[in-house]
Specification:
Number of strands: 0
Largest sheet: none
Structural class: mainly alpha
CATH architecture: Up-down Bundle
CATH class: Mainly Alpha
CATH topology: Growth Hormone, Chain: A
Helix content: over 70%
Radius of gyration: 16 Å
Shape: elongated
Strand content: under 5%
Order of helices and strands: HHHHHH
Number of helices: 6
């Protein structure tokens, strides 16, 4: 798996963070640069950390399932993508009055949006993807998109939020198919 594919995975994973950053930007009335930096650092940091944890878990299993690793990667990426597509179609049912800059709230949002990255880390272990460069790339992409997302949300509002998650989900399913096709041919 090359740099471009890992970058696409990074973009796919970052779409959840971007959507939440847009929502956070909407909630912050007096937005400052340090607010956007704080949100972007949390999201980027968690998105970089979770694949490491998943990779560590996956390395122990890699030798046992090497014959079906491409199916597992396809399954994980497709499941994450389908979850993102499903979530993009749901309408918000309640108003969120929580402060997105609160440490606890931001930690929980970062954790929730990075669970998918944990599963990607497992597939990285199965596919023997170089870990350090991949997690740095994923973290940087997430940081940049989250930073931009806060400002987009502050200025534009809810217009893009659900569409972003839909695109991210489709992207991850496409990458899963690419991995499967490459290993089957």
């Amino acid at each position: 798996m090359g740099f471009f594919t890992v970058a696409l995975i990074g973009f796919g994973l970052a779409m959840d963070c971007f959507a939440v950053a847009v929502t956070s930007g909407i909630a912050i009335k007096q937005l400052k640069i340090n607010h956007a930096l704080k949100i972007a650092l949390f999201f980027g940091g968690f998105q970089a950390l979770m694949p490491v944890i998943g990779w560590l878990a996956g390395v122990g299993l890699r030798d046992f399932i090497s014959d079906i690793d491409h199916w597992i990667a396809f399954g994980l990426l497709s499941a994450i993508g389908l979850k993102m597509i499903y979530e993009s179609r749901r309408l918000p049912t309640e108003k969120n009055d929580k402060n997105p800059l609160d440490f606890y709230v931001l930690s929980m949002l970062s954790l929730a949006t990075s669970i998918d990255a944990l599963a990607v880390g497992v597939s990285f272990a199965f596919l023997k993807i170089p870990l350090i460069a991949s997690v740095i790339l994923i973290g940087v992409i997430t940081f940049i998109l989250s930073y931009i997302g806060v400002f987009v949300g502050n200025r534009v509002g809810h217009f893009f939020e659900n569409k972003i998650e839909l695109v991210g989900g489709l992207l991850l399913i496409g990458i899963g198919l690419k991995i499967l096709i490459e290993h089957l041919t």
